[in-house]
Design brief:
281 residues; mainly alpha; two-stranded antiparallel sheet; 2% strand; globular
């Protein structure tokens, strides 16, 4: 490079660096947040760290080996593992997906409409951001207890074998997927009250998919629901959440008026989801 060219290039390089740095700066400082063990997102939750429910203070310790509580966990786990290879097991694999855009439509049949980042942006944003908050609500207890997941104890496969390595280092209690699913069920029930029963049933069986998948115990699921509800309670004190809630309600009303429905085979999904471990609470 000639000495005469260097002075010209230096300002250009400086501008390029400044542009690159500017592109890395966004309002709200998006963070990469782990959901369970294998799904990551660059979206930002609504809640600040000090507003996230304190799971370690809110949930009791998981059932100890030899206790009545753990005996129920083991019973439900045996019943759930008996569904391996069935359509319900295949549904558990589908339910494990929390990455967006696919994750946005886990409740598509329950609300009887498809969720799309372009056509229903507020609803899409509401689900994606609340997912992070509901997951965060379980994290402290997960890290503290580091409870071994069922597949680590019984040595049997899961419905998501590619996730097993990551799940081994991510505590089982309480269930993050269940917290997210139950938070979504509560939120969606508010903005689509005409579908509330179907939505809440979906919230229940969404968590039960983690039993069928052999990655969570029954007590993980129960406390996951609790933490999902705790997260939603905190979200109602957040202005951005309430703004998106209102906008999402309008989007659903518009979709109803236009006669739109879910594109999924909802009758088939409903039939499959009726199958559940008999002892599950």
């Amino acid at each position: 490079m000639s000495s005469s060219a260097a002075p010209v290039l230096r300002p250009l390089l400086t501008v390029a660096v400044l542009v690159a740095l500017a592109g890395c700066t966004t309002t709200g400082t998006p963070r990469t947040t782990a959901v369970e063990a294998s799904v990551t997102t660059k979206a930002v939750g609504y809640l600040q760290a000090d507003a996230v429910p304190a799971s370690l203070a809110l949930v009791p310790a998981p059932p100890a080996a030899g206790s009545t509580g753990f005996a129920l966990d083991e019973q439900v786990s045996r019943e759930a593992r008996a569904l391996r290879g069935s359509p319900r097991f295949a549904q558990a694999h589908i339910d494990a997906e929390l990455g967006f855009p696919a994750g946005a439509n886990q409740f598509s049949c329950a609300i009887d409409m498809d969720v799309d980042a372009v056509k229903t942006p507020a609803l899409y944003r509401l689900l994606e951001r609340s997912r992070i908050d509901a997951s965060s609500a379980t994290r402290t207890a997960k890290k503290h207890y580091q409870r071994a997941r069922p597949f680590m104890v019984n040595g049997e496969p899961t419905c998501t074998p590619d996730d097993e390595e990551g799940l081994r280092g991510n505590g089982s209690y309480p269930s993050g997927h269940t917290s997210i699913g139950w938070a979504w069920a509560l939120i969606l029930s508010e903005i689509a009250p005409d579908r509330a029963d179907a939505i809440q049933l979906r919230g229940r069986n969404y968590g039960e998919s983690r039993l069928v998948c052999n990655v969570h115990w029954q007590s993980d699921i129960l406390e996951g629901r609790f933490m999902g509800a705790a997260a939603v309670a905190r979200l109602h004190d957040n202005a951005a959440f309430n703004k998106d809630l209102l906008a999402a309600r309008r989007e659903i009303a518009a979709a109803r008026k236009a006669g739109l429905h879910s594109a999924r085979d909802c009758a088939a999904e409903e039939a499959v989801l009726k199958v559940r471990p008999a002892s599950a609470l």
